[in-house]
## 1
Amino acid sequence: MTRRQLNSADEASVHPKQLTIERVQEILLQEKYVCDRALATVVYLSLVMGKPLLLEGEAGVGKTEIAKVLARVLGAKLIRLQCYEGLDANTALYEWNYPKQMLHIKLEEIEHGDKKKVETEIFTPDYLVKRPLLEAIQCDDASPPVLLIDEIDRADMEFEAFLLEVLSDFQITIPELGTIAARHRPYVFLTSNRTREIHDALKRRCLYHWIEYPSFEKEYEIITTKFPEVESKMAQQICAFMQKVREMNFYKRPGVAETLDWASALIALNRKQLDDKSVVETMGCVFKYREDLHHLREQVDNRQFSIDALLRSAPEMVS
Amino acid sequence: MDITPETVAAAVNSAASARGKGTLPNMMAFGRALKQLGVKVGLSQVLDASRSADLIDIAERNDFRALLRANLISQKEDFPVFDMLFDCFWREQSYERVPMETMDIQGTPSESHSPEGGDEEGGLEEAMAETVANENIPLENLDEFSMPTYSPQELMNRKDFSEMGVEESRAIARAILLIATKIATQISRRKKIGRKGNVVDPRSTMRRSMKYGGDVIELARRKKRIKKTKVVLLCDVSGSMDCYSRFLIQFMYGLQNELWGVETFVFSTSLSRITHLIRTKNIVDALDKISGSILGWSGGTNIGRSLHAFNRNFAPSMVTHRTVVVIISDGWDRGDVSLLEKEMHDIKRRAKKIIWLNPLLASENYEPLCKGMQAALPYLDLFLSVHNVNSLVSLGRTLQKMVA
């Protein structure tokens, strides 16, 4: 589980009440996140309505990234709950600090402390280990935190049911302490890679958006936004290549994350434009499976896929 | 349900009476139309959509579309239906009743949005109904589907379907249930508290120690729990499998409804996902829905291409190291064998097990000589026959051994 706190200056933070769809697009762009109008609309609605947003899409299209970026622009704390198989309420919500409690009991024993008193003492917030969900609910910052529940499809059904409860009330009951309600509702983002279907009840509580692979134009914009120094010709070539490759039959189709890795590798190598050689040299950024690399090479050798032709046609593809 | 411009228009019409002035009634009507087209929409979602309409400029047609879609739709597959209905519903709205004056009129006519004509599908439905009629099965008794069989020595085979008693159909149901539990049982990573576990659970240990004044006397332990495997069922419904199709439907339906986490596909020359169609407690409904929406039933076979479609569109997210992929086919393939082999290889990499059920295997002198079967064989964990109740039972036993 990773928890990251991103601090940003208060004056940079944006209040959701002042937002519009255009403004969302703008502030995301300032943080180098290129998003289309539909996504901006959905994000805007989620922020203003205070309704969780469920983002689905292929791996590497920027589902997680948008929550991180939003936390930054809103000046909010980012609390991330990475889901995995076997994740349970203990690791997501809270746990008592058992060693510390034991220690306390032993110390009291030596001093012949009062048994009743000990019992009340060890069940106080001092002995509580906060996990992401509790942290999000208890967060005392001026602005609500951004709660990112990443890859919800990896957690099991039981956890989903539990999450449903938390997301509907934003309060948690700890038997020894009582009920803790959120001071302000966190902005909740859920992501899913669709390894299984999320239950309807949970979906119903969320806004939904499917992030597609970017179009040529959008991908070009993403590259040039992230890497202003990139040669425009090469950026176009990269995009043309990615578009083509996503239509082909690979075991793992590359996402935007791979595009950006590749672009940065090419920039680091000081390439101004692509050629067959540099493509083959750096293909490890795009394909992470031996079979895929092999498949690509085979296609090139059989002349079913000509990198040269693709690269030559690239500049014309910009409208 | 097959979605055509006609059904969309019908849904708009039937919801029209609920429309009125203001956002809410219109939203409710839209929600109702969506529901009629088979999209699951909750009232709370409609209310939220209506509430949020104030937050944007609804004259911006695309923003309004995004707003409704985010609120009302919760899976990608429903996007096309939504888009068709949106165009049809809010276009009519704009020049017939005009309660929301700001609505844009330039909606594209819904007709141009229809992906394919409704004719073929209608034809198929008819064909399906005909099949049912020819075999003299009253609709109520559809769940008494019998086993089509290949091997001639089975007595049950020779019985006419109408003679097939309740006993046999119960036997099938029992066998499926048995298989279902065998396939489905696996050890979970989640743990529950138990006396014989091998991991100490600090939380409940601490709790129990309270009664001894804080000394840890009893150790609470956790043990692993049984976990369900996912099953993906790929079923060949091409012409060569025709005589088994009734059994197949029952098998798919039975498995889907006994297990959690089953995804069902049928293929002939192309692949269709039918999980959502047969997720119903009533086999007659299921049959209706399937017949209404599957193209290419009893057509040719292209296993390679179908598996390719599966690998490309579904496998990356559906098949994990815990998934058992079950393919039911006779292996007669008219497509590219090298493609089939490659796709089998890909499935093998992702899945826990691949099981191929071949009805022809029951025949004593059958050898998997056809090219498709030959290509697939090296990748299979199990190659079994399904042709009658006994074979189902033995399949159940084999699976039990395999999973254990």
## 2
Amino acid sequence: MATPATVLYSEAETRNFRRVTVIWGITVVLLLPILALLGYFMRLYQSGAFPKVRPEWFYAVLTLHSLGMVGTWFVGSMAGVSYLLLKYTRPSLAISKFSYWGTLLGVVLLIVCTLGGLFGTGWYFLYPLPLMSQGVWQPWATLLFFIALAVLGVCWTIWTLDILRSIAKRYSLSAALGLNYVFGKPGPEVPPLVLITTVSLIVGVAGFVAAVIVIALFAARALGVNVDPLLMKNLTFFFGHILVNITMYLGVAMVYELLPTYAGRSWKTNRVVALAWDAVLFLVLFAYFHHLYMDFAQPVWVQKFGQVCSYGLAVPAGVVSIFGTLALVYAARMRWTFASMLMFLGIMGWGVGGIAAVIDSTVEVNFHFHNTLWVPAHFHTYYLMGAVLIILGFIDHTGKEISGMEEIPWRSKLTVALLLIGGYGFLSMFYWGGAHSVPRRYAIYPAEVAQGTLYARIAVGFISVLLLGILLYLWEAGKRCLKALTA
Amino acid sequence: MIPMRAFYVFLAVAGFLIAMFIYAAWSTRRPRDIDTHSAYSLRKKLLLIVLAVLVIGLALTLAKTPYPRESDIPAQVVFVVGKQFSFGISASPITNDDEYLAATYSTPVEIAAGSLVEFRVTSFDVNHSIGVYSPDNQLVAQTQAMPGYVNRLRVRFTQPGRYRVLCLELCGSGHHRMRGVFDVK
């Protein structure tokens, strides 16, 4: 049963929470162009623009770019749902602040170990690569990397648990999971925001536990204990897959909460929505097997089960939410603003990337696409054109709501156009490259895949347009967020 | 060819989805109330269609995995070891660093066109991955090279010529330089 609304924050406390959310938003918005510039550097490097720069720099920048982006949008989505949950629950402001400072510390440590120490394993640091650098990065850089991960992991786990605690204060587990809807029994009304956040964060806790085990096993290896590389790979991808997925799910949760206010219609939990998200709770735990299809040592039934779960995951989370978005907007008295356009297009990007991901999750196709440019193609689609657009929409929505500053419609439309043209144009080269066997994560393309250099050059042009859109967003939304800080 | 087929399937389905979003956005120019029951009924139909498509997709593809079947007997076995930053490829087992070094410098292994060959792939240090590129530079097969494990990749090459092996798993600063070759005759 839901408890009375007295558990919620007072107006003054809410103002404090708003301020912290705006600070999170400004930080995320500032990190975006910096991290995007790192990506720009990588595509420029692949296009041959820096012949005198050693490839070690490419791999270090790749590591910082990918870790930075994954972390930034995870905290962005967490800050977003925490704020929106204020309507229903009482997440801790102190823990949000603690996570903020912890995240900043973690980011600084990551910058030092990558740009200062050339640590370059990529964001999922497959065992035992961090320990075998061929002298490129020193043991201190590896140590710093794991300290950074530990700091981020502790902060984010505490934050995750606190949000779950705040939900548990008001809703029983079965209510928060919408089981009363599933079984057609009377119970409290549960907003989709609460349902999706609960599902995502329960899964998130499982992911963080896996990350802790990975870090502990790396420490054990440093002490001379033998560690199984296949077990480590499973744990690493389990964690990584979950972190990326829940970032998107939390973004979708924000859309369920906010887009109805622009469409003038309601979007409530019902049996299908509850069933769909409860299915996610199970399916997402096993879909990660598709990252290990090319590890033939895994049992074949596990690989096939991975494909079934990956296909299955597309239905509840994807189809139900995408159909819901279309039905919500169709012929609605829609207020098309910067925020609502970004959220609407974010769901579209999530869907487009999801289609490419489902195709790649077919074992037969993955045999030709695994670790080619098709991989960054699909995850950049649902991340950059999906979760990122949604979170940018949320930040602008919040900045405008608090500051009361109106937007200039033509500038909003121009920014959205630049983001779309630059974003999808840049991604098209990843897709085309993947379909033409170009490997991903290559600093320099050898003769066999020399066409990758041309694709990188074309992508650079589109990234320039994308960066222009990002800077325009920073200017427009930044003004509102800065005013919101003093409101 | 599977990659291009997959690419066009993606374009078609993603194009349909984008068209739906444009249609929904365009419809807001003439706002009106919609019948919720019709929407729910449409959702039910859509869910069933997507489920049917996915089940058909699973039925058509799940059996076509690249994993070795015990019933297939390979005519030839080739041993592959990855080590930062080269591949040793040999017709004889590679069990130590000396054999690995010899394999990296020896003449390319020859494989008979049309016969089933089994690559036994492992690593002496970190995770690598062998990406087998055909003479016309198409990625035709791959498997991971993992320390402590042997992955068995079975392929039947029909196109004669020189095949290159590139690393497809980030393995350090020389990742893009890793190489191996063999010939199909």
## 3
Amino acid sequence: MSTPRTLFEKVWDRHLVTAEEGGDPALLYIDLHLVHEVTSPQAFDGLRLAERPLRRPELTLATMDHNVPTTDPSLPVEDQLSAKQMDTLRANCEEFGVRLLPRGSANQGIVHMIGPELGVTQPGMTVVCGDSHTSTHGAFGALAFGIGTSEVEHVLATQTLWQARPRTMAIEVDGQLPVGVTAKDLILNVINEIGVEGGVGHVLEYRGEAVESLSMEGRMTVCNMSIEGGARAGMIAPDETTFAWLKGRPHAPSGAHWDAALEDWRQLHTDPGATFDHVVHLDASTFEPTVTWGTTPAQSTSVNGRVPHPEETRDPDQATRALDYMGLEGGEAITDLTVDRVFLGSCTNARLSDLRAAAAIVADRPVADGVRAMVVPGSTLVKTQAEAEGLDEVFKAAGFEWREAGCSMCLGMNPDVLAPGERCASTSNRNFEGRQGKGGRSHLVSPEMAAAAAVHGRFVDVREDPRAADARAVR
Amino acid sequence: MDPVTRISGLMVPLWRADIDTDQIMPKQHLKKVERTGFGEVVFDDWRDDPDFVLNDERYAQGNVLVTGPNFGSGSSREHAPWGLQQYGFDAIIAPSFADIFKTNCAKNGLLTVELAQDEVEALVSLATDDPSAQVRIDLPEQSVESAAGVFHFDIDQHTKHMLVHGLDPIALTLQHREAITAYEAHRPARMPVTNA
């Protein structure tokens, strides 16, 4: 009998070009390389300088997401630096033969949306991208992680990466998420438990009843934020939910290839008896709608909680600084915090089910006076699908701005930014200082909680809203 | 890449945990298509604060950043190490680093040194009390020497070898071209391609 292996070990083993030996790391084959405009120009330059070809353009896919304005795509990009970066990507893709889904294309979107949508992200693959939220693709049982520009160049030139074997951590989440509590709350609770450094050097595997019960979109939300716990990657074993989601996608296998793929994918789970370096146990039935109060994704509490006083936290100095930045003193009830802005978007929470759930909370209610709210679908496909269902009309009738797809205010590289001091309920992944705009104050929440905050002008416990059940039903 | 062996100079103390790459290189500076021009905008948003250490003339010549745990967390932007290096840092000492950031530094010859927290705190105290205190990092010997003592650090031997010899990782990998081709020959035909 072969040694029991974890999901991670199975995927790792099948990508070894050369195994770890002596002090040398393994050389890992990369099945899919996603490229965007911000972290690639210097890598293509490097290839040109060294006169190296792109080894496998057909395993490479590019889109424009970080910089794109979310206004009318038929208009030119006003920011000349952003325009140049997009033009540079277009020229590089033409020169090196890479398929590009540019601004204005029906399949353009945030790079971590389009891989799954097109079906090029599949179980058991290795996926990399010059973006830390590449961990998203782990929802399919892929080993997916973010890299820097030097490694982007390395993958373009060799289709491989040198990697030291990471340690493994099982995140076992038993029980079921209560109504009004979502995948976003689940991952915020995981990060609160392990800390922003807890996953460093590890690949996480999310397991247990609560994880198995999640839709693919919920699983992507969870894996997306693995990096916020310091982990390189997060994975979930593929199952019938995964296969049903993939079947029929443009790049999913078909015919005999589908059958062969399915037989293979069914092997991609952690064997009984396989061991992890660390195991963390959590109970989803105890989770509540969660709101971050500070400037790291681990600084969070229940919507019914209070902003802590610094001395109640693990790092009082850090908490003092965070509270100062956030314009908080400590001791405030979360439900007393009023918001100026609401951002429904990002590769964490701007999929169709996120927009459906948020719309179910909003339905027929106006955005509160003084609140500016916007929806930025994660991809053009999501935008198109949402419009076909009339979700755009629900949001627009309430007073939300309905935008084109892109990263937008998740990182504020385009014109969508917070003004200094503005407080924002955001469905994105990072509440770092200045992340959504210099001096902006971000509170990370689920789409349901963001929608409720838009309507009430402050954070409220979405579980007390009868529409929470409607939101769950459309997820 | 130039070889990295021994680094001597002055420290810049920045004792804070979880400094993310959004702080090191704010997003408004990620729009360049070149690798240069990042030194003057490193920690740009924090430089509004007159008390920020990089605004302190006494540390203007510092070339070794001494900082808190989990340095470089968050975004994978390599613009962060480019900025630190172009500002004039040759090495960063911290109790721990975020994974992607650490790799990005190594690819650029920016040395990351992990010491025990009490050792880093000792260096921070030394540099805070005496901005002219010298530090000497010896990569082959894996040691950090200062008036605070001689501290040993661990580093994976592959990264050390690459840095000490200033090797081009892509050139090294291309020596394995046959192994890569052999691997590709066994990839299942059903694996997706992006241009179909």
## 4
Amino acid sequence: MTSAIETEGLAKSFGTTRALGGIDMVAREGTVFGLLGPNGAGKTTAIRVLSTLLRPDEGRAAVGGYDVARNPEKVRALIGLTGQYAAVDELLSGNENLFMLGRLLGVRPREARRRATELLEAFDLADAATKLVKTYSGGMRRRLDLAASLVGRPRYLYLDEPTTGLDPRSRLELWAMIRSLVADGTTVLLTTQYLEEADRLADEIVVIDHGRVIAAGTPQQLKTRVGGLVLQAQPADQADLPAVEGILSSFDREGDGVYNDGQLVMVRIDDRSAIGQAFRRLDEADIAVDDLSLRRPSLDEVFLAVTGHVADGDELDDRAGVDESADERRKA
Amino acid sequence: MSTATVDVGHGNMVSNTLTIARRNLLHIKATPEQLVEMSIQPLMFLVLFVYVFGGAIAGSSKEYLQFALPGILVQSVAFLPFTTALALNTDFQRGVIDRFRSLPMARSSVIGGRILADGVRIVWSVLIITGFAMLLGFRFGGGAAGAVGALALVTAFGLAMCWPMAFIGITARTTESVNTWGFMIILPLTFASSAFVPVETMPGWLQPIANANPVTAAIDAARGLMLGGPVARPVIESLIWLAAIVAVFAPLAIARYRRRV
């Protein structure tokens, strides 16, 4: 196994803000490497350094064996970049966007046309091929953006928060596309705020916060470290909150205690059978609940577990747990 | 997806520049108001100036058309590079430049393609304005060589002005500040010049400013070539100005382009 993307002590500051404070990471060839962290953690800065858009202040980074500072041209020939915001040209059609990129990559016109058509079909955009991108939906733009980064068949694909702001269906579609690219041998560097996304896609993850790596490992290793599942209950009547807290606290195996936010009561558990027991005990106590569900720890909880403090990114929320909780609810 | 390989060639500057220029010109199709801006708007200026002020300034619209056309041409091509500034600014804001910069292509072609496309727009405008002015009764008095020379000089002036506007577009953080800076510079430059009235009619303090204005040099040269008159001094002066503008602002714009993150 060879390392595709490698950084050592990578640091970058903007004025007095230290965006990257010495990042070490190794992504192996043919895998998905996840860079997980809240807004402002340094994920985008790392991607920009690795795609030669920014020069690092300290440390080194190599992509496919080429140093990003010394051989940026070589690196650019190997990578495809999909930005956090869809960096496609709104005033061109989808077809013209892809054709233009092919031409810029030195592909002959006939071949560039063929490649554009092929990608538009693969990404389900053939019907909108000649329409201006500004008329596209968010999901279509994201797909075109991904197609745009694939025109040159890059060995290394960088996806900077590819699903942020997408509806759940588009997100699932994009995940499927990413998986099929990896199956074809592409190495993917993925940044995300969503633990679930990293969990579903990445072979290995580093968690970064304030420009530093705070945890690294496979999703399984990280989840074990964070603690298995969260059981949460929302009583129909807020007066029942203390009683619900009492019942859930009996499932608290780790001594973490029960968290009550005034509406929801949450507890970390290891064994998913707890939800059945909780259901019966709530029923016996005659407490009506609006919600009783199991979910994976959210990114907040990963941070709490790994750093001992709550992540202070500006837009951090609980979304990482949302889909999972819906799944579990259906099962329960 | 097929697995046939695509040869990724290394940045060929000429081909890359043409591709970017083509992309910029395709934007006209998507935003028809650009077409209005480069065709109808200058004609509106021409008609308004000639028929509103002509009588007061030159005694008749016909006389004033002869005087004002070179000025209106230079003013129009001084305003067209606004597109250079606004489009580069938008490309940065939208992340399109990031995509270009992450490709193994010639980096200079992004600005080069922008200016080439604006050159096409400038030529288009110059021809439309001149053609329309001839319909209104404008007559060249400096022969065919003078006419061609004048239009070439006006076009070159517009191209040179793309560089300071590119600098503004790359430096400014927002579209609004591009507009503010652009107008602050272009409006006084074009009006405090010999474009619409003879410099001698201006107050004493303004005359040296208007005379030192590169727009005045370009207009005097174009006027001489179009109407027949003294050309040597204004032509040399305006060529020096053009070279100076490009020599100062091209490196500045390119340096900003490299450094903007």
